[in-house]
Amino acid sequence: MSELSSKAKQGPSLKARALRLLSSREYSRKGLASKLEESMARSMKKDPLANDAEPKLDVTEISKQIEAVLDDFEVRGWLSDERFAEALVRRRSERYGVRKIQDELLKAGVDGAKTAGLLQGLRETERERAQELWQRKFGVLAQDQKERARQYRFLASKGFSADVVSKIIGGRPQD
Fold first, then answer.
1. Over the stretch 132-143, which tens digit does the pLDDT of each residue have?
2. Taking the mean position of all CA atoms in its chain, how far away is CA 18?
3. What is the DSSP letter of 159?
């Protein structure tokens, strides 16, 4: 009975935690590793005296276990930086420019070589996407300098290039 109760007190395995996270959305390798490290740290902090007979895992051992799980998931095709990048681009492309999306991909630890094709496709449609966003938000050309600056800042903050933003704010037709 004590064996069952000690097992019941243990949290889910590292693999189970990773699967649960991946079942809700795509993660980059770096992002999933970070989430698993946080989860392990929380579970160790929550119950530090639960089982003194078992040796405590140190940070390097946890990192090795996480890397092993991530390697296994990549081999099985459950974890893919390319799939994560595609999902992020699909989610963000309507509201953000190439610069902002590229920054998010770099922050997520996705290799630039893996995303070059996706970003090139975004560059080709950046003008249209920025125009649609501007149309939804403003719809009319600015009449004074203050309003032009406000519209410019809005589009620039969304990661669209200065060239594209100035063409849209200036009311120039597409090339």
1. 999 999 989 999
2. 16
3. T
